[in-house]
Amino acid sequence: MVASMPGFVESRTMPTRRTVRVAEVLRKELAACMSQSLDLEGLLITISSVELPPDMRQAYIYVSTLNPELNQEKALALLLRNRKEWQGRIGRRLGVKFTPQLIFRFDNAIERGDRVMEILTKLELNKETPVEDQPSD
């Protein structure tokens, strides 16, 4: 996958076994780093997914939070502040030639899912509301 930036065409490629394995190890190691970080204490930030392009030069880390009051920009700033330290720690643990650059993005899938559920619930309620029958002659 290529970054969705102006000038780039986003293309989805099938992940290889290696990229899936490395992404899973990255997720676990990064979760451990995040749980030990005092900056993130009490923020309830979770890793939704990790995506790696075939060259594994970047790792797109999708995060979400269960805290509705948390400002997304503030959370991303905290993650970016710790990124270099975490990359170094993960690089030593992974043992790969290049440590992927960690790129954090907020995953809005939970909010989108909540919105879809809200719409479906409204549609279901409208369906159940009886329409007044017209008297037949």
Report on this structure:
This protein has helices at 17-36, 72-94, 109-128; strands at residues 45-51, 58-65, 101-106. The protein has 137 residues and is an alpha+beta fold. It has one domain (17-128): K homology (KH) domain (GMP Synthetase, Chain A, domain 3), CATH 3.30.300. The chain has a three-stranded mixed sheet. Strand 2, helix 2 and strand 3 (101-106) form a beta-alpha-beta unit. Helix 1 crosses helix 2. It is globular and about 65 Å long. The chain starts with 16 loop residues before the first helix and ends in a 9-residue tail after the last helix. Residues 1-11 have low confidence and may be disordered.
Mean pLDDT figure: 80
The CATH class label is: Alpha Beta
Strand order of the largest sheet: 1-2-3
The residue ranges in which pLDDT falls below 50 over 5 or more consecutive positions are 1-11
Question: Care to give the gist of this entry?
Answer:
The protein is an alpha+beta fold. 46% of the residues lie in helices and 15% in strands.
List keywords for this structure.
137 residues; alpha+beta; GMP Synthetase, Chain A, domain 3; 3-stranded mixed sheet; 3 helices; 46% helix; globular; disordered N terminus
Write the layout of secondary structure elements.
Layout: H1 17-36, E1 45-51, E2 58-65, H2 72-94, E3 101-106, H3 109-128
Parallel strand pairs: 2-3
Antiparallel strand pairs: 1-2
Helix pairs in contact: 1-2
